From TrEMBL:
<keyword id="KW-0560">Oxidoreductase</keyword>
<dbReference type="InterPro" id="IPR036250">
    <property type="entry name" value="AcylCo_DH-like_C"/>
</dbReference>
<dbReference type="GO" id="GO:0003995">
    <property type="term" value="F:acyl-CoA dehydrogenase activity"/>
</dbReference>
<dbReference type="InterPro" id="IPR013786">
    <property type="entry name" value="AcylCoA_DH/ox_N"/>
</dbReference>
<dbReference type="Pfam" id="PF02771">
    <property type="entry name" value="Acyl-CoA_dh_N"/>
</dbReference>
<dbReference type="InterPro" id="IPR013107">
    <property type="entry name" value="Acyl-CoA_DH_C"/>
</dbReference>
<dbReference type="InterPro" id="IPR037069">
    <property type="entry name" value="AcylCoA_DH/ox_N_sf"/>
</dbReference>
<feature type="domain" description="Acyl-CoA dehydrogenase/oxidase N-terminal">
    <location>
        <begin position="14"/>
        <end position="103"/>
    </location>
</feature>
<dbReference type="InterPro" id="IPR046373">
    <property type="entry name" value="Acyl-CoA_Oxase/DH_mid-dom_sf"/>
</dbReference>
<protein>
    <submittedName>
        <fullName>Alkylation response protein AidB-like acyl-CoA dehydrogenase</fullName>
    </submittedName>
</protein>
<feature type="domain" description="Acyl-CoA dehydrogenase C-terminal">
    <location>
        <begin position="236"/>
        <end position="355"/>
    </location>
</feature>
<dbReference type="Pfam" id="PF08028">
    <property type="entry name" value="Acyl-CoA_dh_2"/>
</dbReference>
<dbReference type="InterPro" id="IPR009100">
    <property type="entry name" value="AcylCoA_DH/oxidase_NM_dom_sf"/>
</dbReference>
<dbReference type="GO" id="GO:0050660">
    <property type="term" value="F:flavin adenine dinucleotide binding"/>
</dbReference>
Amino acid sequence: MSTGGHPFAPPHHEQRWVDTATELAAEFAKTAGALDQSAELPLANLQALHGSGLDAALLPKELGGEALSYRSYGEIVRLLSAACPSTACIWVMHIGAGVGLAEISAPDAARFYADELIAGRRFANALSEPTSGNLFMMPMQHAEPVDGGFRLTGAKRFASGCEIADHFLVNALVEDKPTFFGLAADPATMRFIPIWDTMGLRASRSQLIEFTGTLLREDRRCPALRPKRPNHIGAGLAFLSLGIADAALAALVDHARRRIIPTTGEPLARMQWLRFDVADVHARLEAATMYARHMCWLADENSAEFVPATIRAKQLANGLAVDAAQLAVRVGGASAGYLRSSPIERIFRDAQAGGLMAYSLEVCKDTLGAALLDGHDG
Ligand SMILES: Cc1cc2nc3c(=O)[nH]c(=O)nc-3n(C[C@H](O)[C@H](O)[C@H](O)COP(=O)(O)OP(=O)(O)OC[C@H]3O[C@@H](n4cnc5c(N)ncnc54)[C@H](O)[C@@H]3O)c2cc1C
């Protein structure tokens, strides 16, 4: 797929990375259904992504990467998500934590995390808490000062890909202030509680982690500086939902063209109700795409407008994915939309996750609505 030409599209010189993701995604699509059923981590997919050089390419140039643009990154997340959204979800979290730690750590630690990412080590985010829920940037658990750092006893929930992670991005209250740390997996004090029997994104295995006196090392504490570049989780989440909407639209168009309605002798695709509804979903997909690409352009410009733009982009994409998947179920009917054997059934379940993931659809709307109605910037 060539996306060049438009200022919000991936830069022309990065097209080879979009092509690489297109090829990988074609392979990932073949196993997405089986991984959903078994709820196994898509380890081979994640290793293939690393093997392609994509993980390292996202690092800043001074740390051995290519500073791949957010415009290309967004397009790549979308392609992966259309093929296997569990893979895309873990990859967004892996890049968000790995590149994020390399961006926000003190220089020696930053170099260490960049080298670990380049070497193929795996990263995860342990931010959400059972108590704080959606407000994952506002931890409620305190880390207590000890020699060499701080000890954390508590729990973090829904850490995608945590069971294969070598390093975590963790936050906790230190002297009442939210503070980020890099943390190496520590089986002696960290335990995964198997809560992950879910409706959708089943292969993302986003388990609950219990911490019992885990040491958060002082030398892995991230200085409270403004990150040099925007975080890749904020930039990626809208594209997770756009990819799922792409998959829903492709599946419903394919079925509507093949399914012959006996009373008319014509394909379902000729029905006017479907033409109206598919036009509506498609127009919203185009609009949400344009806005999400604009958001990535703001990230490439390192603009302060990026943060409210992530919230708008996520809101537009999350709701659209659910509506596109719902239409696909109607088009598929019982035989092609409701049976477990149908890809549409999995797409419908996967589509629900985007709006639940932080910031949830409601938190996004509340933030933007309050900004408008209360008269301050969103
Ligand atoms: C597939 C998946 C992968 C995830 N991966 C990770 C990960 O890798 N790392 C990680 O740290 N977390 C991860 N999460 C967690 C996620 O980001 C959220 O923090 C979590 O889903 C919140 O769940 P909750 O049950 O506590 O919801 P709650 O926050 O309790 O939300 C319940 C309801 O209340 C609403 N609500 C909550 N707060 C507000 C508010 N302030 N204003 C308006 N409405 C509100 C919500 O919109 C929702 O409707 C993942 C979640 C999912 C589903």
